[in-house]
Specification:
CATH class of the largest domain: Alpha Beta
Distance between the termini: 40 Å
CATH superfamily of the largest domain: Periplasmic binding protein-like II
Shape: elongated
CATH topology of the largest domain: D-Maltodextrin-Binding Protein, domain 2
Number of domains: 2
Strand content: 15-25%
Radius of gyration: 20 Å
CATH architecture of the largest domain: 3-Layer(aba) Sandwich
Largest sheet: 6 strands, mixed
Structural class: alpha/beta
Helix content: 40-55%
Order of helices and strands: HHEEEHEHEEEHEHEHEEHHH
Length: 276
């Protein structure tokens, strides 16, 4: 019994420093490291030398709140450019403290990393040329769709269409270029990022979206797995942003041109405005 108790205490002692390690590191260094992905407007993209977008703005506000939680000393923000392919591994290896993009929270991914409260709710759709007659995903049976490799969109397409020809790409820019050149009939990704992508192109009215969504994408900020104190610090700030309606200012700055929040997104903000 004594031996078992000693083993349990040793395990607890080893686990305790790990639970607080991210906040301790930030406190000691005065630096919080945030990851972003370029080319995911209006959520995350590079403009000049600075990351911009809805998710980036949320992370900046969260970083300010964590600084307050740690005693009020202003933190230096270090931004690290990630890709869709390496973002999960970068968080898992703790190369960034928080990832600020368009990552969908799934149980499979939660085996490797952890997630904050949800930050946005979107749906998977397909971008097509304006003259294309396709209106629904079912119209793409036997046709060619570009999709980013390793994303939830790729998995959803496999589940929704058995005879679609998928062309796997590494980025949204590559998918759009294949569509522009006519090498594919559509490019599948999250609806809001597809709108942002099309609007940034010369002659953006050359493209449109299908009428229906084929998946639900619940975005959240990725953070290292097994760090409960850091997750609590992040969630505390997100809950305050939602509860105080500061989220309205952030939404209006980055997403209002695309329309008001959906009823589902408004409910997401309301439900997650957790009390202290």
């Amino acid at each position: 019994m004594i031996a078992r108790a000693l083993v349990a205490l040793a395990a607890l002692a080893l686990a305790w420093p790990a639970a607080a390690q991210t906040l301790d590191k930030i406190r000691k260094t005065g630096v919080i490291t945030l990851g972003y992905i370029d080319g995911a407007a209006p959520f995350s993209y590079l403009e000049g030398d600075e990351p911009q977008g809805y998710s980036v703005a949320l992370c900046r506000t969260v970083a300010d709140g964590i600084a307050t939680q740690l005693g009020g000393k202003k933190l230096q923000t270090r931004w690290v450019k990630l890709t869709i392919q390496n973002r999960i591994e970068a968080v898992r290896r703790k190369q960034v403290d928080l990832e600020c993009g368009t990552t969908t929270w799934t149980l499979g991914r939660q085996k490797l990393v952890d997630f904050s409260l949800m930050t946005f709710v979107d749906g998977g759709s397909v971008l097509v040329k304006s003259q294309d007659k396709a209106r629904r995903l079912a119209d793409f049976s036997g046709r060619r769709i570009a999709v980013i490799r390793g994303t939830t969109t790729e998995k959803a397409l496999h589940s929704s269409l058995k005879d679609v020809q998928l062309k796997l790409v590494a980025s949204r820019a590559e998918g759009l270029e294949l569509l522009r050149q006519g090498e594919v009939d559509g490019f599948a990704s999250d609806r809001t990022t597809l709108i942002g992508l099309a609007l940034k192109q010369p002659g953006g009215d050359a493209y449109r979206l299908l009428d229906d969504d084929f998946s639900v994408e619940q975005y959240a900020l990725m953070l290292p797995r097994g760090d409960a104190d850091f997750r609590l610090a992040v969630d505390r700030e997100l809950a305050r942003i939602y509860r105080s309606r500061e989220i309205d200012r952030i939404y209006d700055r980055w997403l209002r041109p695309l329309g008001p929040p959906s009823l589902l997104l408004s409910a997401t903000y309301f439900i997650q405005g957790l009390a202290e």
